[in-house]
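--- STAGE predict ---
source: upstream dedup step, 1 unique chain passed
mode: sequence only
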Amino acid sequence: MEPDTQAAQQALRAVRYPGFSRDIVSFGLVRGVEVTGRRVAVGLAVTTADPEVPRRIHADAVAALKAAGFAEAEVTVSVTVPRNAPAAAQVVAGPTSEAGVGKVRAIVAVASGKGGVGKSTVAVNLAAALSRILAERGRPDAVGLMDCDIYGPSVPLMLGVRGRPLIEGDVLLPPSNFGIRAISMGLLIDEDAPVIWRGPMVMKTISQFASNVRWGELDVLLVDLPPGTGDAQLSIAQSMALSGAVIVTTPQTAAVAVALRGASMFSQVKVPLLGVVENMSYFADDQGRRQHLFGQGGGQRAAAQLDTEFLGEIPLDPAVRQGADHGIPVLVSHPDSLPARAFHALGLRLLQLLGQ
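--- STAGE serialize ---
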């Protein structure tokens, strides 16, 4: 049985973009596949200033197609070298290109012991608060958000960023919205595609987020950690120069107990705790009366036991949920709301703790 177009596409899925774990098909580089008998012609389009990238892709694609049973494999790689890219995607090519977190003043982990406490919601809205505060100080576009929740990436939805990141050589250019540069697995896979990976693949991706993304000059890079204290969380804490960690919990006893266990990891790896944030602390009715639906005081108890600062309460408010669903942080959609003011105060305090 002769190989067909489907076999060619499957073969190309085995070709990785140099420096990344993702294949050239899912990156959208394949422009056409034509099969005639046992001969295949493939057109690829790459945007890069690194001449080694198209050479590697060409060689790997030819090898993969021949391994799939094609006697002849003609692969044409069209290369676009960005010269006058728009401001949002401007890059510095060649040997002077810089990627990674070398120019980031402070890297802060946002962590929780368990899922369901709104950690990513806090991370996104805290990033929005920091972005607004720093912009008012004359430092626009000085905040980054690294979504390391590989299995459940929600930052793209909450931040309203869409589409694939641009690639320059072996470096990803993080998209930006509301003055926040963000990278997430959610930007690298199809929207409904599950991430079924073992630990080594997860760790490789997180490592690429840190070293193969052009973050540029940032005042603060927030790292949204996956819940728990597994290999991914431990490796991030050990491999990145974290300035500190913010622990997110909800008021109830079960959440606080797990948050305490999660926070203990940072003390073991000598990462300072900057404080505890209590999310979904209360619901304020139309008369301003507070209803503590999930209990009261859990965050303060956690901070006391961890000998760290209690950074504040974030109220339960439909505006936060609506903003997350529509990709507009509550700082932008409802800037005068209770949660927006709470996040703004949290951002101010965090900058103080970071010496900014």
